[in-house]
Amino acid sequence: MAGDVGAGHAGHMDAIYKTQRHFYDLTRKYYLLGRDALIAGLAPPPNGTVLEIGCGTGRNLIAAARRWPDARYYGVDISEAMLETARASIAKAGLTGRITLAQGDATAFDNMALFGVATFDRIFQSYTLSMIPDWKGALREAAGKLAPGGRLDIVDFGQQERLPSPFKALLFAWLAKFDVTPRAELKGAACGIARDTGLTASFASLRNGYAWSARLSRAV
Predict the structure, then answer these.
(1) List of residues 6+ apart from 47 with CB closer than 8 A
(2) 172 secondary structure, DSSP code
(3) Any alpha helices (H) in 21-164, and if so which ranges?
(4) Which of 135, 150, 137, 65 is nearest to 108 (CA)?
């Protein structure tokens, strides 16, 4: 049953992004705020491993690989259409030897089978949880793949808590057209998963609540 659900979501994402992937990065840079700050703060250890869950077009992995050249990079996405675009972009950037991609469901994927890597020093999820039906499962799956001293960084849409209510209504209505649902329970879920898995959690509201960020860290 879980496999059927994952396959159905993969097909749905491919349908959404079959055309959008060609102009995705050009448009998203104006409203997916906080991504570059997340990348700037990754600071993986030398020869460390970095995984992006929901890597999409590869834009973030390329930026991270350029910013932190001593690490090894991996990306997983459920949409083969997006991965096709990501592979082409990574090849154009000359980073094929440093970034490895694979198709997988964020809520359940075998990183040893896909990448030959048991755990990761850094994992990040950028504007993906708002698109994943079982987003708490995806969050839990990521937390379980952290190496000692590892860290999971998240940025996604917030609840616009300090912005005008008409703006929130318009934004949420527009996002719904793309099956995007900002997760009002993100803070509680992140803190709960951290507590259950022996991690520490921190949370921040960005741009007056336009975006939220969370960080789950594992002790050395």
Answers:
(1) 70, 71, 72
(2) H
(3) 24-28, 35-40, 59-67, 80-92, 111-115, 135-143
(4) 137
Residue 116 above 70 pLDDT?
Answer: yes
Quote the pTM value: 0.87
124: left (phi > 0), else alpha (psi -120 to 50), else beta?
beta
Q: Which of 125, 150, 170, 162 lies closest to 34 in space, CA to CA?
A: 125
Report phi then psi at 32, rounded to 5: -90, 75
Which residues, in sequence order, are CB contacts of 34 under 8 Å at separation 6+?
126, 155, 206, 207, 211, 213
pLDDT digits (tens, 9 = 90+) for 125-160: 999 999 999 999 999 999 999 999 999 999 999 999
33, 207 in Cβ contact below 8 A? Answer: yes
Residue appearing with tokens 């979501």: 9
CB 163 within 8 A of CB 210: yes
Residues 6+ apart with CB under 8 A from 95: 61, 62, 65, 66, 73
E-strand ranges in the chain read 49-53, 72-77, 99-103, 120-126, 146-157, 200-206, 211-217
Which one, of 210, 29, 44, 12, lies nearest residue 124 by Cα? 44
Q: Are 201 and 216 in contact (CB under 8 A)?
A: yes
- Name which of 31, 27, 93 is nearest 58 in CA terms: 93
